[in-house]
Amino acid sequence: MTTDLTITRPDDMHLHLRDGDMLKAVTPHTSADFGRAIIMPNLVPPVVHTEQARAYRERIMAAVPAGHAFEPMMTLYLTESTEADDVIAGAKDGLIKAVKLYPAGATTNSSSGVRDVSKVMPVLEKMADAGLPLLVHGEVTNAEIDIFDREKVFIETVLDPLRQALPELRVVMEHITTKDGADYAAAGNENLAATITTHHLIINRNHILVGGIKPHYYCLPVAKREEHRLALRAAAVSGDPRFFLGTDSAPHTTSAKESACGCAGIYSSINTMSCLAQVFEEEGALDKLEAFASLNGAAFYGIQPNAQKMRLTKQDEPVSYPGTVVVGDETVTVFDPGYPLHWKVENLG
Ligand SMILES: NC(=O)N[C@@H](CC(=O)O)C(=O)O
Ligand SMILES: [Zn+2]
Ligand SMILES: [Zn+2]
């Protein structure tokens, strides 16, 4: 039984750092354990222009503690008035690593998102030419579509037609939550990949709803049935290069989540690597953790794996991590996997 594992320092290919006090509070948790992260642009107002991304990157770097080797990989928020020239110039400059498509109204801070994909085709065509990835929050927003079906319907009615119209476009299906998503990604070519979150490997929809409503397990896309969680686990531990870690760690204040209309998002940056080691151990696949967390994402984005290493050691005593993080007068509640974690994380040089 493996109890000691050293892997390449991981990357988080889907992360929300927010801004202001929240940014200052949460960034050190990511920069401690991750070499790079794809930074989501859904601030208020969203990061839509290259110059906004440049300024945001500087605010992030100012929040990284001395001694942490961390590189934020910036993205732009696609709107129906995005100018292709700005996006491509940002990408050529090396600052912009991807563009994020939020269907308008699908998730937190997505009201400026895209209503009609045909309106952004000129931008997507230029991105395809430049090899710049499109990251998709893959849910339709039609009121008549059940929220548990929104990912599957998005794949059928938006994603697949888009990929057929523009096969050269590189696409990441962000935070997949269904067997349908995993199967579609696995059937794709080298232009398609999918991120999987930590929490969707651990919780199913019962965790949200059985025994009282649990707002800290509510995120979008919402966790699905157990069969979907098992399909996501199989994809994550498969070693298939199309699947890699994007925690979707998405901090909201505890009060904003424990509300009559609670926000969507789960904060997992602090304990993600301990959680993942436990998941991969349960699956008898600790040898695949490095591919999922440290190698596959870098390969998709065309960057070298991090030079540093992370050591994971299984100990008898549960590891301790804070249940909440203080942000100003508020707190952020940390993801509770529902059981003690036994894998200790050490960042090596
Ligand atoms: N995942 C979430 O539930 N929330 C994210 C937005 C997103 O990634 O869809 C957030 O910004 O809070
Ligand atoms: Zn999303
Ligand atoms: Zn997200």
Q: What is the residue-averaged pLDDT?
A: 98
Taking the sheet with the most strands, its summary is:
8 strands, parallel
Topology as a string of helices (H) and strands (E): EEHEHEHEHEHEHEHHEHHHEEEE
Q: Which residue ranges are poorly predicted, with pLDDT under 50 across at least 5 consecutive positions?
A: none
* Domain tally: 1
Q: What is the 3D form?
A: globular
**Helicity range:** 25-40%
EC number: 3.5.2.3
Enzyme class: hydrolase
Domain Amidohydrolase-related: 12-304
GO molecular function: dihydroorotase activity; zinc ion binding
Quick overview:
This protein has 349 residues and is of the alpha/beta class.
Describe this structure in words.
It contains eleven helices and 13 strands. The chain has one domain (4-347): Metal-dependent hydrolases (TIM Barrel), CATH 3.20.20.140. Strands 2-3-4-5-6-7-8-9 form an eight-stranded parallel sheet, with helices on both faces. The chain is α/β, with parallel strands linked by helices. The longest helix is centred in the middle third of the chain and has 16 residues, at 150-165. Helix content is 33%, strand content 17%. It is globular, with a radius of gyration of 19 Å. Bound molecules: N-carbamoyl-L-aspartate and zinc ion (ZN) (2 copies). The site of one zinc ion has 5 residues, from loops. One zinc ion (ZN) binds at residues 14, 16, 40, 248, 250. GO terms for molecular function: dihydroorotase activity; zinc ion binding. InterPro entries: Amidohydro-rel (IPR006680), DHOdimr (IPR004721), Dihydroorotase_CS (IPR002195), Metal_Hydrolase (IPR032466).
